[in-house]
């Protein structure tokens, strides 16, 4: 095997390319990214970069020099239009074709867009790329009124950054809670309290009924009858897997590219990892994660398996978010059916919330308690048995290790 092509220019692509080299692969590694920027990290885009406390350059994951030192052929502005599985080539938007022996698809996901009255309006923003963050940041002026549509992680982080930047912020969410797909209801309530305490207005169970303005959104009327005047709108209603080239190439897809526990697609020469990959283990439902830690680890595992290892991958469930001065971290299953809940109070409004099934610790959320996460990980990996309420009462969690 001589030629490995990685499609995509995000964290997963970089993690895989670096891993191929650390594993000693000496053949050609080509990374094809449709973006014009060197690969960069996305989490700071809704936090420090948006607030202006970090510049966009600081997010770079692989620059020209680092790529050269690692012998990675990094090609920017190269969109892969098609995968020809019979000829073992990828076809680029430039018209060129490149042959591969093994292929990794790490095309990530893109922001889901709102159509209807929001489409094409000059002050409606999405946040996925550096260019999005820079456009948005230019509008983040103290006193302006921001409307966040969707109380998912991105919408909430942008609202928090807006408040920190001296703006007014309102979040409108259809569901009855924040981050409905990933946070248990009680933690959603605690997070809503933090937002309200910082002056963000949150409307749950609410839809937007009418939109006022011609080229720009100037006002919205909500299903509760309230009318809001707005200067800018950020839409954070989820992400869609960039799986079209895989689907068109006849690979098995369905909300992402279906891979097995070795990150192999339905074609044994083609692997997928990161936001675009939906991993099926056994007969279970495919799981697609949209998180930094999973993109990094899954792509590294895919790279090793591309090289012929048979290393089953277990999804990395660790996730974090920063909003105002609050850091939230979560790991494992935090809404297990029939599970037990133990909540350890920390300083102020902080807490660490453990989930157990029987005596098995299966998940935890550290809400304003980032230092607990390192201990939680160790407790989980050593198989800590939850036989009493020590997780709540122990004066020092480390003593349980
Ligand atoms: C604003 C923001 C904040 C976030 N904050 C957090 C956080 O706090 N914590 C956390 O855990 N996660 C966070 N995430 C999620 C995390 O950043 C993603 O899970 C991670 O970036 C996924 O990496 P990826 O490489 O799989 O995909 P992506 O980062 O989406 O990269 C895919 C790349 O492939 C390119 N591409 C797509 N199609 C083609 C093609 N046909 N040809 C060539 N190139 C193509 C894309 O342009 C893109 O550059 C955040 C994401 C965003 C957008």
From TrEMBL:
SUPFAM superfamilies linked to this entry: FAD/NAD(P)-binding domain, FAD/NAD-linked reductases, dimerisation (C-terminal) domain
Protein's UniProt name: 3-phenylpropionate/trans-cinnamate dioxygenase ferredoxin reductase subunit
PANTHER family in alphabetical order: APOPTOSIS-INDUCING FACTOR 1, RIESKE DOMAIN-CONTAINING PROTEIN-RELATED
Required co-factors: FAD
FAD/NAD(P)-binding domain residues: 3-299
Residues of the Reductase C-terminal domain: 318-401
MF annotations from Gene Ontology: dioxygenase activity; ferredoxin-NAD+ reductase activity; oxidoreductase activity, acting on NAD(P)H
Superkingdom per UniProt: Bacteria
Top EC class of this enzyme: oxidoreductase
The enzyme's E.C. designation: 1.18.1.3
GO CC annotation: cytoplasm
Pfam families documented for this protein: Pyr_redox_2, Reductase_C
Keyword terms: Dioxygenase, FAD, Flavoprotein, Oxidoreductase
């Amino acid at each position: 095997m001589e030629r490995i092509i990685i499609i995509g220019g995000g964290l997963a692509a970089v993690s895989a390319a670096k891993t191929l080299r650390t594993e000693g692969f000496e053949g050609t590694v080509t990374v094809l990214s449709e973006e014009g920027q060197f690969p960069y990290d996305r989490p700071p885009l809704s936090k420090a970069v948006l607030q202006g406390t970090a510049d966009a350059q600081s997010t770079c994951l692989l620059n020209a020099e680092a790529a050269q030192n690692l012998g990675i052929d990094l090609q920017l502005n190269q969109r892969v239009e098609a995968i020809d599985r019979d000829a073992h080539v990828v076809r680029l938007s430039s018209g060129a074709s490149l042959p591969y022996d093994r292929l990794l698809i790490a095309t990530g996901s893109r922001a889901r867009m709102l159509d209807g009255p929001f489409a094409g309006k000059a002050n409606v923003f999405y946040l996925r790329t550096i260019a999005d963050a820079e456009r948005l940041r230019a509008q983040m002026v103290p006193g302006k009124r921001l409307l966040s549509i969707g109380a998912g992680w991105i919408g909430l982080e942008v609202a928090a950054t807006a408040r920190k930047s001296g703006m007014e912020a309102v979040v409108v969410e259809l569901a009855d809670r924040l981050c409905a797909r990933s946070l248990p209801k009680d933690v959603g309530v605690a997070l809503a309290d933090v937002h309200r305490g910082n002056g963000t207005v949150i409307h749950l169970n609410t839809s937007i009924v009418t939109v006022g303005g011609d080229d720009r959104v100037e006002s919205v009327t909500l299903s509760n009858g309230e009318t809001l005047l707005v200067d800018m709108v950020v839409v954070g209603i989820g992400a869609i897997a960039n799986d079209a080239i895989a689907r068109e190439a006849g690979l098995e897809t369905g909300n992402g590219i279906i891979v097995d526990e070795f990150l192999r697609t339905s074609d044994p020469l083609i692997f997928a990892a990161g936001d675009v990959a939906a991993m099926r283990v056994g007969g279970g439902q495919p799981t697609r994660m949209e998180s930094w830690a999973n993109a990094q680890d899954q792509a590294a595992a895919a790279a090793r398996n591309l090289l012929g290892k048979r290393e089953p991958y277990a999804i990395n469930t660790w996730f974090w978010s920063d909003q105002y001065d609050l850091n939230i971290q979560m790991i494992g299953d935090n809404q297990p059916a029939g599970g037990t809940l133990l909540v350890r109070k920390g300083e102020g409004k902080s807490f660490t919330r453990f989930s157990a099934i029987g005596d098995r610790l299966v998940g935890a959320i550290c809400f304003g308690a980032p230092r607990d996460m390192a201990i939680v990980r160790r407790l989980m990996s050593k198989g800590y048995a939850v036989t009493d309420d020590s997780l709540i009462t122990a004066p020092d969690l480390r003593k349980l290790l």
